[in-house]
Specification:
The chain has twelve helices and no strands. It is an all-alpha fold. The longest helix has 32 residues. The two termini are 43 Å apart.
Length: 274
């Protein structure tokens, strides 16, 4: 959070927005603010950016730089009211700025980092859900929501959003791979108590990983996790159908062996080039 954010203002104040004297005053305040910001003197920068905005309140970039200065003043893990006020102000200023310039991804990333550093995951999710109302096909926003729900510990919602990624990015094998890995992590490390639900997650994961392999036949990473999901299925089947469990393990072995063959072939090819 102490790292300087983005580029400083490159302001050209319109002649029609303020009078000549006010324009000069605003430029002087901005120049002093930029100099302080460069030195990481965020308190002084904030003071001058605010004065500049008092002169020209319509200039959107001043909202951004005031928000960045508030971020500079914020100290992670400090729960004092004064420090939380910096987080509140940063969120307010950047949110206001992004309503005017929603395509500024650097500012959006700064806002999301502020949410996360201040442990306000729910607010970050709300922001992205609202943003997606007007930008439903924004893949990065959907990825962010999936990650945020995972961070929050809401697996079902997280999985739903990872599935949305595969729909938006349907030609990218990595999207299906990630979805499959998320399914494996759930059933292996924090499985649902309901065995039917667990099997459903295994099937979703297997389907996604197999699709990744269909799109990229040498995708040995997907094969590795597909192998693991077949073994998870074998553990479930062992309780009711040992023969089927043995078939599951045989399928897992075949997938694993194929992955090993691909890895060896890639290493051999790399050795010949060197």
């Amino acid at each position: 959070m102490r790292k300087k954010l983005c580029l400083l203002l490159a302001l050209v104040l319109p002649l029609t927005s303020v009078g000549c004297v006010e324009k000069i005053r605003a430029r002087m305040e901005i120049k002093q603010a930029n100099q302080a910001y460069e030195k990481e003197d965020y308190r002084t920068a904030l003071e001058h950016y605010k004065k500049a905005r008092d002169i020209d309140s319509e200039f959107a970039d001043l909202d951004r730089m005031i928000g960045y200065s508030q971020i500079g003043l914020y100290i992670p893990d400090d729960k004092t009211p004064a420090n939380e006020a910096h987080a509140d102000a940063a969120i307010q200023e950047l949110s206001k700025y992004l309503k005017k310039k929603p395509d500024d991804r650097i500012a959006r990333d700064a806002l999301i980092n502020m949410y996360l550093n201040a442990n306000r995951t729910s607010q970050a999710i709300d922001y992205f859900r609202s943003y997606l109302t007007d930008h439903p096909a924004d893949l990065e926003a959907v990825k962010s929501i999936a990650t945020l729900y995972a961070k929050q510990g809401d697996f079902n919602e997280s999985l739903n959003w990872y599935e949305k990624i595969t729909l938006l990015d349907s030609k990218n094998p990595e999207s299906f791979y990630i979805y499959g890995v998320v399914c494996y992590e759930k059933v292996a490390k924090n499985p649902p108590a309901d065995l039917t639900e667990k099997m459903a997650i295994i099937e979703k994961g297997k389907g996604a990983l197999q699709h990744a392999i269909d799109l990229k036949p040498d995708y040995f990473e997907s094969m590795a996790y597909l192998n693991l999901l077949w073994r998870q299925q074998a553990l479930l089947d062992a309780a009711t159908d040992p023969v089927k469990a043995q078939a599951d393990v045989a399928q897992a072995d075949a997938i694993r062996n194929r992955a090993v063959e691909i890895i060896r072939a890639k290493k051999a090819a790399a050795g010949k080039k060197s």
